[in-house]
């Protein structure tokens, strides 16, 4: 028995999220079908977590236990040949039997992209929310600081969250503004506003509700100081709407590494 | 009567090229339908040139004559509301009546992207040719130098070219290698190889045949010095295959500007 861990990127546009759903058409379903075709085994894939329908991943991590003797360097090529072209596995490692992609994960980073130019960037239209109209980025940054640290994030979780404990820790959050794609001399173009947020875990819809609330701050509909009040209310109704899934991407998942489970790169998988 | 010039970007994946075809489903068809809906006029759009099915454009230029009195700053927003989300107009200018997007064009630049990493970049899968396996970039650059200047490009034109004269001038051509997307320490990843090529005009399939031939040079199947021989042969059979259209993008079209027809930016439209 071996425990194989892989990194997968996917364009989530066409899928109902990572994790298997009764309706089918998930990333996990495609990976499990590909692995079944490859190994003949009915394998159960464990992801580092769910992603919502339409959300993308640069680096999602999963693992599975297998009796297959396929050499580790062959797994990616063999599995990619059995996956649609919007799902690509890029790394495979053999890990200790006890490794569990979800339980062993220490940190996750998500990215959310908002295109605040007058017109969308059509080559990025599936991975950016288009928001024509200026946003006050400094206010959004100020609001964001209230969320860093350990808090009960009930106000920023879906009412359908199945978790008992809504306390999570945000280690780092920042908003970048990139004006390189603005048309020269065009005052209606503001640039690309990108949020990176890293925490020990995220509740259902949490990043999207944070973004929906930050958009209201950027539009002047909420003050940056209200984020503190919203957190304390522990009431989903106090926060902003859930931002569209297409702007969201699971950027990275971090694990603690040991000599037994060495990292291929700077302690990130 | 006014002459309106616009810049359009499009993802060509779903279309049979820019110019109207008997089978329909072209960029021009969608623009003309949008303009008809907007103005009530049956307008004829003049593009700076054709593009093949599946080829993209960052900046394609077209113009049309209209009786409409819509203010120039309203055209983009109004037309975008009538276009599918993979076609976006980004600039509109009123130009002298004699301006003709094709006849007035002085230079065109095309870009061709080859992803030479082991696995494709799935978020760029519609705009990059995936070529796993190393390419000898220095040889490709050496080969490319033979094409710069004024030559008869019959060997690099489709056999179906309707042009009588196949002499064209390439002003500039370069190949860039970007390794930023390579996986650290992964010897099978080479990076992104991008060709930019600027000339006074391009024959049907010309850039794609140049790329197909350069790929053979990069693979060691042809020597860089053979490009000279291929040019002199004036025989399509001597050049390489026509590279896939999805890696190609019309990057820019340049015009001579006068005081009458001022440039919004550095003498490029």
What is the approximate shape of chain A?
Answer: globular
**Which oligomeric state applies?**
homodimer
- Beta-strand content estimate of chain A: 25-35%
Q: How many domains, in number, for the residues of chain A?
A: 2
The average pLDDT of chain A is 93
Assign the structural class of chain A, choosing from mainly alpha, mainly beta, alpha/beta, alpha+beta, or little secondary structure. Answer: alpha+beta
Regarding CATH, which class of the largest domain in chain A? Alpha Beta
Number of helices of chain A: 5
Largest interface: pair, residues per side: A-B, 26 and 26 residues
Uncertain segments of chain A: 264-269
| CATH topology heading of the largest domain in chain A | Alpha-Beta Plaits
Report how far the terminal alpha carbons of chain A are from each other.
Answer: 22 Å
Look at the structure and name the CATH superfamily of the largest domain in chain A: Pseudouridine synthase I, catalytic domain, C-terminal subdomain
Gyration radius of chain A, to the nearest Å?
20 Å
- Tell me the series of helices and strands of chain A, N- to C-terminal: EHEEHEEEHEEEHHE
CATH architecture of the largest domain in chain A: 2-Layer Sandwich
Number of strands of chain A: 10
The main sheet of chain A comes to:
10 strands, mixed
Q: Tell me the helix content of chain A.
A: 10-25%
Q: How would you portray this structure in words?
A:
The structure is a homodimer of 269-residue chains. With 269 residues, the first copy, chain A, is of the alpha+beta class. Chain A has two domains: 2-103, Pseudouridine synthase I, catalytic domain, N-terminal subdomain (Alpha-Beta Plaits, 2-Layer Sandwich), CATH 3.30.70.580; 105-250, 2-Layer Sandwich (Alpha-Beta Plaits), CATH 3.30.70.660. In chain A, 18% of the residues lie in helices and 28% in strands. Chain A has five helices and ten strands, in the order E-H-E-E-H-E-E-E-H-E-E-E-H-H-E. Chain A has helices at residues 27-39, 75-80, 137-145, 206-218, 226-233, and strands spanning 2-10, 46-47, 56-66, 87-95, 105-115, 129-130, 149-152, 167-178, 192-199, 248-255. In chain A, strands 1, 2, 3, 4, 5, 6, 7, 8, 9 and 10 form a ten-stranded mixed β-sheet that branches. In chain A, strand 2 (46-47) and strand 3 (56-66) form a beta hairpin. In chain A, helix 3 crosses helix 4 (206-218). The radius of gyration of chain A is 20 Å and the shape is globular. Residues 264-269 of chain A have low confidence and may be disordered. The A-B interface holds A 9-11, 56, 76-77, 80, 85-91, 118-120, 122-123, 125, 127, 183-185, 264-265 and B 9-11, 56, 76-77, 80, 85-91, 118-120, 122-123, 125, 127, 183-185, 264-265.
